[in-house]
Amino acid sequence: MEIRKSRAVIFLLMLAYLLITVFVTSPSNTSWIVPKPKPFKLPFLTSQQSITPLTNTKHFLVSAFMDQRRKGFDVRIIGIFRRDSIHPLHCIFFCGGLFSETTPASFLSHFAHFGYPFGPVDVLCSIPESCKATHVTLLTKQNPVNISDQLWLPIRNRKTHNKETRMNFTVCISTLFGDYNNVLQFTQSLEMYKLLGVNRVVIYNNSCGPELTRLLNGYSQEGFVEIIQWPINKYLNSSRGWKVQVDKGDLQYFGQIVTLNECIYRSMERSRYVLLNDIDEIIMPYQHDNLNSMMEALQPKYSKVAEFLLESHVFPNKYFEPSGRFHLPQWSNVSGTNILEHIYREDPDRKIYHPHKMIVQPKLVEQTSVHEVLRKFGGRYIVPWELCRFIHIHVARRTSLKLEQLNEDKRLWDFQEKLIPNVDKALKRAGLLTEN
């Protein structure tokens, strides 16, 4: 009996020693006692793409946003729909652990489809009561069998406790395509945006050249550029223009209208103003040093304006500044246009339709096209061209004008002392600058 007790005591002592050894030498001396909780796994697949095919339809979903500006609706889904094949759909939400009941989807088509078979469509959904929705998808049947087989979209612009610093200016560049590789002008434009007070540039990239890819990666890493991959050709035959009779395809100009609207909603809760323009255009204040001071001057009188319309003035790229002072040797092997060499400006022909470009207040915009807002919750203001206009380095529009009929405009030169070294730094970072 005593031997049994002794053996039991020895066993308990050895077990205690073993437990103490494990506890002391464990990398985390409590992890063996209290197991770490496993990360929560969603019971469905979340789309990781910018374009998501909608099951059992000819349509595509792009993104979803909280938007309660229209009475009775909570969520707006931006989509690309086959316009002759829009049938009833049903919204369903994931409510932090449970699937909601379905609610009927409403459709708000865009006028700017340009006659193409596919066009932008907004789908409006109501969230059921007591549902704290984080994700949404659309169903063709009100009571489907396999909900988890659907691809779901995260709902952006939800109110959270994490307050992101609100920016003043975001530039939206609709689509890069055709292996675009105008590296020098792109760099100069991005650096000009910085000097003018822009906080972020959002770019939808269908395709661009290898040098421009390296350049954009640097800007993306520093947080100035947000790149949205836009593989629209994987799903549809996009046109290269907007005239359906001439530019054949399924969708206008690589989905330009879709990306502009997506960018407005993406920026709605984080940027006070959004600039809608092409990469070869630079918005330029002529009576202020930067965009912040210009908009501060306009804001007291025009706080309820949704769209500020600005003229775009072409600087024909066939005419060069004669002295060659900005034909810099370090840029000689960099592909693209040097904007500092173009100082001759056309006056637009105001006797005919002259399209504008825009600065918008995103919270007052519902739907936009390229040159005007289609649906809005505010007014419009045409900014005097003497105050601000777009510098557009481009092929001449008024081809009958001779050089002596153009205006000399050296506004870009006012920024050259900071612009040139900043461009050099960005090109060097991308390994594109020639060392002298």
From TrEMBL:
Its main location: membrane. GO terms for molecular function: glycosyltransferase activity. This is Glycosyltransferase family 92 protein. Belongs to the glycosyltransferase 92 family. It comes from Oryzias latipes (Japanese rice fish). GO terms for cellular component: membrane. The keyword Heme does not apply. Its EC number is 2.4.1.-. Transmembrane segments: none annotated. InterPro entries: Glyco_transf_92.
